[in-house]
Structure formats: structure tokens, C-alpha cells
Design brief:
The protein is an alpha/beta fold and 286 residues long. It has helices at 17-26, 38-47, 66-74, 109-113, 116-121, 133-143, 154-160, 214-223, 257-269; strands spanning 8-11, 32-35, 52-59, 63-64, 78-86, 90-93, 104-107, 126-129, 148-152, 163-166, 176-183, 196-207, 229-236, 244-251, 272-282. Helix content is 28%, strand content 33%. Helix 8 packs antiparallel against helix 9 (257-269).
């Protein structure tokens, strides 16, 4: 169980969408350890500062978070669960500030770009890039800005005592971010708070020689056993120009017999292979 002495590390300030993911994973009382950068999140888990880490891995509009794929290879942690967070962008200001007073809007560049229709309808409002969505709310409240607002989660408004001027101003309401919950391989099991899927996924990374048919043969290890591949993505292999790592998500557990046989088959073909974890999907409580 989560305790105050064993927080969950994440990138961003309190109130970030990653904290919302942590609440879906472990409950509203989960202790948190905000970090400025993604590499600091992984280092906090590696050093024991945190008992777990929550990282975004993919967004339905912007694709994969490539930096975190690289960190998953560098740090040998287990993926223990995934969850999907609906990204709802709210216009947030200090108490007493009305929309008519807002001349500037601060937020992370990605969040600003996901609200372009709002800015098109309000051409007199300036977009100002900031390092973090929740951090922009924290800054507004700290400096008591009377002519500015921020774009961030409703959670951040509650944490910092700010006021939501307009809800759900994002362009696309089918905007979701997929998060992983990570732990050290020798760490105790984590008690998940939300509803858990019956179906499991397994994520792995592998390389094959750059020869004709190598990738086809590696995929056949799964096709021959009717194993569904949910995702496959390539990343450059550092130190070997024009060679690639392949990250793969499949449906099933690592210890399922068909999956075991497929992984054994792939291991015979691959130059390198590592299973990153078998896990279930945690849903938000209704």
C-alpha cells in the first residue's frame, strides 16, 4: 500500500495529469514525489527515493513519449499496470479574475497546441509557453496575476486554490494519455485501487540483425500462435546508425503457454530481447 514515506515519482508539479494517473492506480491518498524531468523520475525509483514511478508513454494525438521508451531500456524496471487518462484542459485563473480580464494564457506548449480553437475564437489572448501545465497554475497563484490564466487539469485548480473559468476547452475530446506504473523488480506488489481489466498485456523490447526477412520472422513467432500484437514501434539503436530497437505490446501474460513459446521462439531469432512487464489496465473509478 502507498504510505507517506514511500511516494510515487512523476514528472511535473502537483496537479499534473500524471498525478491523476497515480490516483487511478493507487487511490487519492497516494503520496507523490514531483520531479522536473523524466530522467529524474527514473533515478528517484532507482535510488529508493520513490517506491514506484508513473510515466506517460503514449498520447492518442501526439503518439509515443520516445524519451520514456529510452529510459525503459536504460533502467530495468517492471511495468506493473497501465491506465488511460482523458486529457481535459481547463482555463484556470486566480479567484476574482474574470475571463474579460485575461490577456495571457500560460501552459505547456503541447497543451496550448491542443486548444487552438479556443485561441482562434479569442484572438486577443496571448499564448505563453510554460514548463508545465500544473506549474502554470502554481505560478499564477504564487504571483497573483490579475490579467492571466493557465490551461491545466481541474485537479491542479483544487490543489492551488484557483478558479476554473472555462472547462474542457481542448480541440479534441478524444484525447487520452496512456501511463505506466513502474516498480523495481525485487519490490513488493503494489495494491491497485481502480477496477482492473481481465485481459493482460505484455511489453518487450528486442533487436534483430539487419538482414532480409529478420523482422518478418520475428513477427511470425506471434502470428503462428494467434497472439494479438497491440503495438509495435521502432527506436534508433544508439551506437549503431540505421539499426533499430523494436518495442512491442502483445495481448496475454508472460507465463501463458502460447506467449512463453512465442518469446522462446523470438529469443532464438533476436540479438537482444527483454520483457518489460506483464500487466493489466486500471480504469478510473466511475
Amino acid at each position: 500500500m502507498t504510505t507517506r514515506s514511500a511516494p510515487v515519482a512523476f514528472q511535473g508539479e502537483a496537479g499534473a495529469f500524471s498525478q491523476q494517473a497515480i490516483r487511478q492506480f493507487l487511490g487519492d491518498n497516494a503520496a507523490i514525489l514531483p520531479c522536473q524531468r523524466f530522467d529524474e523520475v527514473f533515478k528517484a525509483l532507482s535510488s529508493g527515493q520513490a517506491m514506484a514511478a508513473c510515466i506517460p508513454i503514449e498520447n492518442t494525438l501526439h503518439g509515443s513519449v520516445h524519451e520514456n521508451y529510452d529510459h525503459l531500456l536504460q533502467f530495468d524496471f517492471d511495468i506493473v499496470a497501465e491506465t488511460n487518462v482523458r486529457i481535459v484542459h481547463n482555463l484556470i485563473a486566480c479567484p476574482g479574475v474574470t475571463f474579460k480580464k485575461v490577456k495571457r494564457v500560460f501552459s505547456h506548449p503541447v497543451a496550448l497546441n491542443q486548444c487552438l480553437d479556443f485561441f482562434a475564437r479569442n484572438p486577443g489572448v496571448e499564448r505563453v509557453s510554460f514548463y508545465d501545465t500544473a506549474g502554470s497554475v502554481k505560478m499564477l497563484m504564487s504571483e497573483r496575476l490579475g490579467d492571466a490564466a493557465a490551461i491545466a487539469s481541474s485537479l491542479s485548480a483544487g490543489i492551488y486554490g484557483a478558479h476554473i473559468l472555462k472547462r474542457s476547452i481542448e480541440d479534441d475530446r478524444r484525447n487520452y494519455t496512456r501511463f505506466f506504473l513502474l516498480r523495481k523488480k525485487d519490490a513488493p506488489q503494489l495494491r491497485l485501487a481502480g477496477p482492473v481489466s481481465r485481459e493482460s498485456k505484455t511489453s518487450l523490447v528486442f533487436t534483430v540483425r539487419n538482414v532480409p526477412g529478420a523482422l518478418f520472422r520475428s513477427m511470425s513467432a506471434f502470428a503462428l500462435r494467434d497472439i494479438n500484437l497491440a503495438k509495435i514501434e521502432s527506436r534508433p539503436l544508439r551506437g549503431k546508425p540505421w539499426e533499430y530497437l523494436f518495442y512491442l505490446d502483445l495481448t496475454g501474460k508472460q507465463d501463458d503457454v502460447p506467449v512463453q513459446k512465442a518469446l522462446g521462439h523470438l529469443a532464438e531469432i533476436a540479438d537482444f530481447m527483454r520483457v518489460l512487464g506483464s500487466y493489466q489496465t486500471v480504469s478510473a473509478k466511475s
